[in-house]
Amino acid sequence: MWHTKEIEETRRNLRTNLEFGLTEEEASIRLKQNGSNKLQDKKKENIIIKFIKQFNDFMIIILIIASGISAVMAYLEGSGDYFDSIIIIAIVVFNAIMGLVQEAKAEKSLEALKKMSSPIAKVKRNGKITNIPSEEVVVGDIIILEAGNYVPADCRLIKTSNLKIEESALTGETVPVLKDANVILKQEVTLGDMVNMVYATTIVVGGHRRRNCNRNRNVNKSG
Question: What is the pTM of this model?
Answer without folding.
Answer: 0.62
